[in-house]
Specification:
The complex is a heterodimer of chains A (397) and B (273). Chain A is α+β, with helices and mostly antiparallel strands and 397 residues long. Chain A has two domains: 135 residues, no CATH class; 225 residues, paralog of FGE (formylglycine-generating enzyme) (Alpha-Beta Complex). Chain A has eight helices and 14 strands. In chain A, strands 1, 2, 3, 4 and 5 form a five-stranded antiparallel beta sheet that branches. Chain A has a four-stranded antiparallel beta sheet with strand order 6-9-14-10. In chain A, strand 4 and strand 5 form a beta hairpin. With 273 residues, chain B is mainly beta. Chain B folds into two domains: 133 residues, no CATH class; 96 residues, no CATH class. Helices cover 8% and strands 32% of the residues of chain B. In chain B, the strands form four sheets. Chain B has a seven-stranded antiparallel beta sheet. Chain B has a three-stranded antiparallel beta sheet with strand order 10-12-11, with no helix packed on it. In chain B, a hairpin with a 4-residue loop joins strand 6 and strand 7. Classes of the chains: A alpha+beta (397), B mainly beta (273). Chains A and B meet through helix 2, strand 3, strand 4, strand 5 and strand 6 of A and helix 3, strand 8 and strand 9 of B.
Chain lengths: 397, 273
């Protein structure tokens, strides 16, 4: 009886249940302007993907535009991210045979492409460019470095949309917490602590490359100093300290400080407590105790043979150069904490300790390969001491 | 050059306004009282500035479309759009002719959301025209998090400029650095921010003079903190004196100087000697 009653009620409820509206056919906008807007909007994520993650679409045999950018196994894929020369290569057909992005909207396929609207850069080639580098800031637009591009849709040929791409690949955020600088000197009771609460600090992931220095030289009108050899573009720019300062200042940044480098490379022992004033100083970015690493083993054993894995962790003497490598990334996401090139710092605590000495110039057994060990650089370029650098920025909004 | 400017203005004049508003970088001069989707009925027969849409043209010059509305009363309503330079005020044009007008309006509603702008115009035949514009560029400063880049923290990844029809040789208007010197972020002695920072527009960066507050006043110029006769370097919040209760002379731990120098207080400001 009850079951029968419930069944009848159920049928009635089902009959009167709210039904979803039948899917209306989405109509294309009435005006070409609106249609253009919607196609460009739909293409946005793919445009960004080519710009930020272009390395992912490089085929195993590399790129087909040696006159624009070289592909080499000694160069990590990060080099091709947010890389104007890769952008130029892509739209010139050096990555895919058919560069336009296909967008399906309103039952039709639209081909979105970048236009070669900009003047040639004579130092590179006579071809018109698919981009122009902008140095900000502009009124109501908050960026230091921007890449101006123009987008068009083959099927709506009369319209163009200029867009500025920002360099989202360059640097990473330094989380807010208490940090330590250098080694703890227990004899002198010296333990320099500091913090960056309420400060938004961003540190470059890699050394400044020759390609980046070229952009600065071109925008500054120093065309005679542009490095033409494309094979050298991924290599670190070897500048005097004054030039390093000028480069970073040009883009609204500063040469990296020693204390920030320590903060970015010394993994905190307690990530959950940013206010902890017990700040340990690990000897490497990957292991607190150096003796357990290949660097420690090399110190004990003079016959230690470097393995490829060792060279991934730190490019010391005996390793092959790998530029833009992300094989050994620190806890915040910067690279080259130990090894590879000597790196220049500003050091306001100990001004005479302004150089990371750990580099490919020293054997793995050398005591320079340890976090917190710094030397002095006179700031002059010297072929026997190639000094790389990177920038950082404190952003105030 | 003049021809390019005229061509760009023609582009502006011909464009569907809601089409070009997609690349707005800012919505300013919003009406003090009207709320989202409110039917605008008062004060009758008066001109009101609803809002202004700020955008960049293809050459990175900044323009502004002022949206005015004559509220219906004895006469029907009028929507008026006037394109002006960004440094001008919309109210100056309140009673002047617009570049585009929609007349015979019975009612108007609008709403400004973070990602879209909607206008609904009803004419005397009670026909409704709806303008809906996605706002590509409007940006809210995010909370910074690990692996975020400075570019993501300060603006959208893609900044859309003014779209155009036909041929326009884009010649980006040069940015200008505002300052070589002078204060760019003023913090009062009671630690209150007096004005938002403009330090990103300093030509050679900026420096600060620590005063024991979480943020201290900043000035355009090369940062040489910690060196002799220069401002001390800030050491952080955990090391700051408590404002008012404690002064620089009582607790200098919020700042530091290079080895061999010591923190010297000038008032509450820390220098190195």
């Amino acid at each position: 009886m009850i079951l029968g009653f419930l069944s009848v009620v159920g049928i009635i409820v089902l009959f009167f249940r709210p039904r979803p509206d039948s899917p209306a056919k989405i109509q294309a906008p009435a005006t070409p302007e609106k249609l253009f807007t919607q196609v460009i909007q739909a293409a946005g994520p793919q445009i960004l993907k080519i710009w930020e993650e272009g390395d992912r679409i490089i085929k195993p045999d590399g790129l087909k535009c040696d006159e624009e950018i070289l592909f080499a196994s000694s160069v990590g894929r990060s080099y091709y991210q947010c890389q104007p020369h890769f952008w130029q290569c892509y739209w010139s057909g050096g990555v895919k045979d058919t560069p336009p992005i296909k967008i399906e909207v309103f039952g039709q396929t639209y081909n979105v492409r970048a236009k070669a609207s900009f003047d040639a850069i004579e130092s590179y080639s006579k071809s018109p460019r698919f981009y122009e580098i902008l140095k900000g800031p502009y009124e109501s637009m908050n960026f230091h470095y921007g890449v101006l591009i123009e987008l068009s849709v083959d099927e709506i040929p009369e319209m163009t949309w200029p867009v500025v791409l920002s360099d989202t690949c360059r640097d990473v955020y330094l989380p807010q917490r208490v940090y330590g600088y250098g080694k703890v000197d227990s004899k002198k009771k010296k333990d320099f602590l500091w913090d960056n609460f309420d400060r938004q600090i961003f540190i470059d992931k890699f050394y400044i490359s020759n390609q980046q220095a070229n952009e600065w030289r071109i925008l500054s009108g120093e065309l005679e100093k542009v490095i033409i050899d494309r094979a050298l573009w991924p290599h670190p720019a070897l500048l005097s300290f004054n030039e390093q300062n000028a480069y970073c200042q040009f883009w609204g940044k500063r040469v990296l400080e020693a204390k920030l480098f320590d903060a970015a490379t010394m993994t905190p022992s307690d990530l959950k407590d940013p206010e902890s004033k017990r700040v340990l100083r690990p000897q490497t970015p990957w292991q607190r105790d150096l003796s357990k690493t290949f660097l420690g083993m090399s110190r004990i054993n003079p016959d230690y043979q470097l393995t490829p894995l060792d060279c991934q962790l730190a490019q010391v003497q005996g390793c092959q150069d790998k530029y833009f490598s992300t094989d050994s990334v620190t806890w915040i996401g910067i690279n080259y904490a130990l090894g590879f090139y000597p790196e220049s710092f500003v050091n306001r605590i100990d001004p005479k300790k302004n150089l990371k000495r750990s580099s490919k110039l020293f054997s793995p057994a050398s005591e320079v390969h340890e976090l917190g060990i710094l030397g002095f650089w006179n700031g002059q370029t010297d072929t026997r001491l190639p000094v790389a650098f990177r920038c950082y920025e404190e952003v105030i909004q | 050059m003049i021809l390019i400017f005229v061509l760009s203005l023609l582009n502006l004049a011909q464009a569907d306004p809601s089409w070009k508003w997609s690349n707005s970088v800012e919505l300013s001069e919003k009406h003090e009282f009207y709320k989202d989707n409110q039917l605008i009925t008062h004060p009758q027969d008066t001109w009101q500035t609803l809002f202004a849409v700020v955008y960049k043209d293809a050459n990175l010059k900044t323009f502004k479309d002022c949206i005015f509305f004559k509220v219906p009363g004895e006469e029907l309503g009028i929507l008026k759009i006037k394109t002006i330079l960004n440094n001008e005020k919309c109210d100056t044009y309140l009673y002047k002719a617009g570049d585009q007008e929609r007349t015979n309006l019975k009612a108007l509603q609008y709403s400004i959301q973070s990602n879209s702008l909607r206008l609904s115009l009803t004419n005397q035949k009670f026909e409704v025209e709806k303008w809906e514009t996605p706002l590509f560029n409007l940006f809210e400063i995010p909370d910074p998090k690990p692996l975020m880049s400075s570019a993501e923290y300060r603006s959208s990844k893609m900044i859309y400029l003014q779209p155009y029809k036909g041929v326009l040789k884009v010649k980006p208007h040069k940015s200008k650095n505002l300052m070589n010197s002078g204060v760019c972020h003023e913090i009062a002695s009671d630690c209150q921010e007096k004005a938002p920072s403009t330090c990103s527009q300093c030509e050679k960066g900026w420096y600060e003079i620590p005063n024991g507050c979480a943020q201290s006043s900043k000035f355009c110029g090369v940062n040489a903190c910690g060196l002799k006769h220069r401002p001390a370097c800030p050491r952080g919040k955990k090391y700051q004196a408590v404002p008012v209760e404690s002064e620089c002379r009582m607790d200098k731990s919020f700042a530091y100087c290079s080895e061999g120098l010591s923190v010297e207080c000038r008032g509450n400001l820390a220098y190195c000697l």
